[in-house]
Q: What sequence folds into this?
């Protein structure tokens, strides 16, 4: 079973920030939080990952709570092309098997 | 990160025939590649781990004689669906790990297999 819990779906208006929550209350100290997304009929795409500190890259920001039991992926200015299923995964590092949950289907509306 | 090319992007075949799917790591020597299967409206399920120069490791419930994996070089892994049946129709995806960069996995674009 996946070690994360995400809402099944979310809507967001184009141009607004999309905030996708993820609960990972059983995360262990050496596990990272990874975020991937999958646009329809394509392979998953890496977005961002973090261990303890908040992270930001050209695609998104990742906010991890101090107790590391939950995190939020932020797409600062959502576009229609951001419509996808977003997966939150915890894993020791990239060499370990990823266990995929159901993810959050994010729909960006004009 | 690594660049992964998967071919073909879609294929339609008749029941009983075999289909080969290729996964190439274009700029990265991948000692390990992974093969996933995804049914409609479901999440990815790991089928097998492909190891260069050795036998693949299959997940429980995946028939190794039906899903033949060959990883003969550091840049190419192939998945052959033998004697395909309609229930094998699915989206097949390969991936490689970016070892040393900790950027997670890079995925191929996937292959949509339809068995008629």
A:
């Amino acid at each position: 079973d996946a070690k994360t819990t995400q809402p099944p779906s979310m809507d967001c208006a184009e141009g607004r920030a999309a905030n996708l929550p993820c609960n990972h209350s059983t995360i262990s100290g050496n596990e990272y939080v990874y975020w991937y997304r999958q646009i329809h009929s394509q392979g998953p795409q890496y977005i961002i990952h973090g261990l303890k500190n908040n992270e930001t890259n050209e695609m998104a920001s990742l906010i991890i709570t101090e107790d590391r039991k939950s995190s939020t992926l932020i797409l600062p200015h959502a576009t229609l092309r951001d419509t996808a299923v977003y997966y939150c995964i915890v894993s020791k590092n990239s060499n370990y098997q990823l266990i995929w949950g159901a993810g959050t289907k994010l729909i960006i509306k004009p | 990160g690594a660049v992964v090319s998967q071919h073909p992007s879609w294929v339609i075949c008749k029941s009983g025939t075999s289909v080969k799917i290729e996964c190439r790591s274009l700029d990265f020597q991948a000692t390990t590649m992974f093969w996933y299967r995804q049914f409609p409206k479901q999440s990815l399920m790991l089928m097998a781990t492909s190891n260069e120069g050795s036998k693949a490791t299959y997940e429980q419930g995946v028939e190794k004689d039906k899903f033949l994996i060959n990883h003969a070089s550091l840049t190419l892994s192939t998945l052959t669906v033998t004697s395909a049946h309609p229930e094998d129709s699915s989206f097949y995806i390969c991936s490689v790990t970016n070892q040393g960069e900790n950027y997670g996995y890079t995925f191929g674009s996937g292959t949509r297999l339809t068995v008629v």
